[in-house]
Design brief:
This protein has about 400 residues and is an alpha+beta fold. It has 21 helices and eleven strands. The protein binds adenosine-5'-triphosphate and magnesium ion (MG).
Length: about 400
C-alpha cells in the first residue's frame, strides 16, 4: 500500500482511542484513526472527536467490545460507538458506499477488507487520511500536500462526488471557512456549477453546515467568493447582499456570536423576510429568537442605563453586548457608543441592578394575596419593574407594595 514513509510522525492518541485500536489488533484486525482527527492533529488543532476505521465487521466488533459500554445506533452502516473514560470513540467497518439515488445517502453500504476502499469514499483529501501507531500516516490522495497548501480538494472528481452527496458542496465551503483554506479550481467550479443540487437537501443539514461556515476564520472570504451559492441557498437574499455582508464579516472576531453573524447576513431583509428565511432553516426557538432580537432593533434604541436594562429584560443579560456588536458592525452606532453600552451592561450586572421580573422584590403571589386578579397581576408587576428600572422607586418589598393599592380593603 502506498503511504508516506514518515514513520517519524507519531500522533498522540487519547488512551480510549488507543484502547479501542489495541483491542481490535489483539483480535487480529487492523485499526486506524481516520478522518477529521488525523487532519486536526496534523494541523495542530484539537480534534473534536475520534473515529476509528477497521476491517472488523459489526458482529466482530460487538464481540470484541462485549465487556465495554457501547452504543449501537449506527450498526447497520457499520458503526459502533465505544464509550470509555467519558469519551465516545466511533468505530466503523471499512466501507464502500453504494449508489446515491437520493443525492444524500448511499442506498446501501458494502463492507470491505481494504482500507483503501474506505478512504476512497471520503469527501476531501484532507479528510481521507488514516493513522496507526507504528505505521504512520496513510495518505493515498495527497492530503498532507493539500493541508500544506491550505487546499480543499475532493477525493476523485468533484462534480461526481457532489452529485452523489449534495451536502458535500456546503461541506467544502464549511471546511474552507473553518480551516481558512481555499477550494482548488476543480472543487470551486463544481461548487458553483452544482449549487442547484442544494435545493433538495434537508434544511436542518444546511443550517448545521451554514452555522459552522459562518463561524469560520475564513467566513468573510468564503461569503465574498461564493456569494451566489449562499444567495441561492437563502432566498430572498441577493448575491449583492451576501457580498455586502462579507465585507462586514471581515471586521468580526472569533468571539463574534452566531446570532450576530446571522443577523449581519440577513440585514438586507425586513423583519418578516428574515424570520421566514430563518424558519426555513429550522433553528431552535432560542436560536431564532436571538437573531430576531437583533434584527427587530435596527431602528432607534435607547442606550441610556434604562435602555440597556430594557435590552436585558427583553432578551437576556448577555444581549446588550451582542446588540452593541451588531449595531456597530453594521454602522448603526459608533465604536464609542458600543463601548458605552458594554460598560453600562457590566455595571448593571456588577451591581445586580433589577432588570427583570425575577429580580423584582415582589412577585405575583404577593399581589394575588392583596386581591389582584388575572391580567392585572402581570400589568402591575410590569409597571413596577419599569419604574424600578427607571430608578423612580427602590427595589424593596415594602416600597413596592406601598405603590400598589390593597384590593382586599
Ligand atoms: P468535524 O467533526 O471537525 O466537523 P470531521 O472531518 O470529523 O470534522 P465529520 O462530519 O465528523 O467531519 O465526518 C468524519 C469523517 O467522515 C470525515 O473526515 C470524512 O472522512 C467522512 N465524511 C463525513 N461526511 C462525509 C460525506 N458527506 N461524504 C464523504 N465523507 C464524509
Ligand atoms: Mg468529526
Amino acid at each position: 500500500m502506498k503511504k508516506t514513509d514518515e514513520k517519524t510522525i507519531a500522533i498522540p492518541l487519547p488512551p480510549p482511542v488507543t484502547f479501542v485500536m489495541e483491542r481490535l489488533e489483539a483480535a487480529g484486525h487492523h485499526a486506524y484513526a481516520v478522518g477529521g482527527c488525523v487532519r486536526d492533529h496534523l494541523m495542530g488543532r484539537i480534534p473534536g472527536d475520534y473515529d476509528v476505521t477497521t476491517d472488523a465487521r459489526p458482529e466482530d466488533m460487538q464481540h470484541i467490545f462485549a465487556d465495554c459500554r457501547v452504543v449501537e445506533t449506527g450498526l447497520k452502516h457499520g458503526t459502533l460507538t465505544v464509550v470509555r473514560d467519558g469519551m465516545n470513540v466511533e468505530v466503523t467497518t471499512y466501507r464502500i458506499d453504494g449508489a446515491y439515488a437520493d443525492g444524500r445517502h448511499p442506498d446501501a453500504v458494502t463492507f470491505t477488507d481494504r482500507l483503501a476502499d474506505d478512504l476512497c469514499r471520503r469527501d476531501f483529501t484532507i479528510n481521507a487520511m488514516a493513522y496507526a501507531p507504528g505505521q504512520g500516516i496513510v495518505d493515498l490522495f495527497g492530503g498532507q500536500e493539500d493541508l500544506a497548501a491550505k487546499r480543499i480538494r475532493c477525493v476523485g472528481r468533484a462534480i461526481d462526488r457532489f452529485s452523489e452527496d449534495r451536502l458535500r458542496i456546503l461541506r467544502a465551503l464549511r471546511f474552507a471557512s473553518v480551516l481558512g483554506f481555499a477550494c482548488d479550481d476543480e472543487c470551486r467550479t463544481a461548487v458553483t456549477a452544482g449549487m442547484g443540487l442544494l435545493d433538495r437537501i434537508s434544511r436542518e443539514r444546511i443550517y448545521a453546515e451554514l452555522t459552522k461556515l459562518l463561524g469560520g476564520v475564513g467566513a468573510a472570504g468564503i461569503l465574498g467568493e461564493y456569494a451566489p451559492v449562499l444567495a441561492h441557498v437563502l432566498p430572498p437574499l441577493t448575491t449583492e447582499a451576501v457580498r455586502c455582508a462579507s465585507t462586514i464579516y471581515a471586521n468580526m472576531t472569533p468571539e463574534t456570536p452566531t446570532s450576530v453573524r446571522y443577523a449581519v447576513l440577513f440585514d438586507s431583509l425586513d423583519e418578516g423576510g428574515a424570520a421566514r428565511t430563518m424558519d426555513t432553516l429550522k433553528p431552535s426557538k432560542d436560536e431564532k429568537r436571538a437573531v430576531m432580537a437583533l434584527l427587530s432593533r435596527r431602528g432607534n434604541v435607547e442606550t441610556t442605563r434604562y435602555g440597556v436594562k430594557c435590552l436585558m429584560r427583553d432578551a437576556g443579560d448577555a444581549f446588550p453586548r451582542d446588540y452593541a456588536e451588531f449595531a456597530s458592525l453594521t454602522g448603526r452606532i459608533g465604536a464609542d457608543e458600543a463601548e458605552a453600552i458594554r460598560h453600562t451592561a457590566e455595571e448593571i450586572l456588577a451591581a445586580n441592578e433589577c432588570r427583570n421580573l425575577a429580580g423584582l422584590a415582589v412577585d405575583g403571589h404577593e399581589l394575588a394575596a392583596r386581591g389582584f386578579r388575572g391580567p392585572e397581576i402581570g400589568q402591575t408587576l410590569a409597571s413596577l419593574l419599569d419604574r424600578v428600572m427607571r430608578g423612580e422607586i427602590p427595589n424593596e418589598r415594602d416600597a413596592l407594595l406601598a405603590e400598589t393599592e390593597d384590593r382586599n380593603g
